[in-house]
């Protein structure tokens, strides 16, 4: 039911997770995160979210950041050369003068764990700061997620 909701909802609906009994928690329910947690508990697989969902979150975050008139420029899916790693695709690249930051989206169950191997390697080298924003924060508390990025650039 978590993976194949009859309504194919984004997070939860009355066909998969919602009921009158859990009405006060509806905003907290997310069938994809629940499925990821169950896969981890049953099979030991690393919690991950669908790549499309992570991309949509990064798109949304980048669009908002670009519209804020910050002194930094934000671009999506930019190729960047990382010393010791090679060329990677930055989910969101922030540039201000000669400074660069990479922002990505992480699974809510894996705080501070990059969703791809190349982003993990870039994060480990530290030559370009890599900061990860929680997908759940982007979808549920968008102003806070944008604030996290802008604070990192301050």
Structure characterization notes:
With 154 residues, this protein is α+β, with helices and mostly antiparallel strands. It folds into two domains: 1-47, no CATH class; 51-153, Endonuclease, Chain A. Helix content is 37%, strand content 22%. It is built from five helices and four strands. It has helices at 31-43, 51-67, 117-125, 135-140, 142-153, and strands at 73-82, 86-96, 99-106, 130-134. A four-stranded mixed β-sheet has the order 1-2-3-4, with helices on both faces. A hairpin with a 3-residue loop joins strand 1 (73-82) and strand 2. The radius of gyration is 17 Å and the shape is globular. The N and C termini lie far apart (43 Å). The model has no long low-confidence stretch (mean pLDDT 91).
Task: Considering the chains and any ligands shown, give keywords for the structure.
154 residues; 37% helix; alpha+beta; 4-stranded mixed beta sheet; Endonuclease, Chain A; 4 strands
Biggest sheet architecture: 4 strands, mixed
**How many whole angstroms does the radius of gyration measure?**
17 Å
Number of domains: 2
CATH topology group of the largest domain: Endonuclease, Chain A
Task: Quickly describe the structure.
By secondary structure, the chain is α+β, with helices and mostly antiparallel strands. It is built from five helices and four strands, in the order ααβββαβαα.
């Amino acid at each position: 039911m978590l993976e194949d909701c009859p309504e194919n909802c984004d997070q939860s609906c009355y066909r998969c997770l919602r009921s009158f009994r859990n009405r006060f928690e509806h905003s907290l329910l997310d069938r994809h995160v629940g499925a990821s947690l169950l896969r981890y508990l049953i099979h030991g697989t690393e919690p991950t979210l669908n790549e499309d969902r992570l991309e949509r979150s990064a798109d949304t975050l980048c669009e908002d950041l670009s519209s804020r008139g910050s002194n930094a420029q934000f671009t999506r899916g930019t190729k960047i050369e990382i010393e010791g790693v090679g060329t990677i695709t930055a989910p969101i690249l922030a540039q201000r003068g000669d400074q660069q930051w990479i922002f990505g989206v992480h699974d809510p169950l894996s705080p501070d764990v990059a969703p791809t191997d190349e982003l993990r390697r870039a994060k480990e080298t530290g030559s370009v700061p890599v900061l990860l924003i929680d997908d759940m924060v982007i979808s549920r508390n968008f102003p806070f997620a944008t604030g996290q990025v802008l604070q990192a650039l301050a």
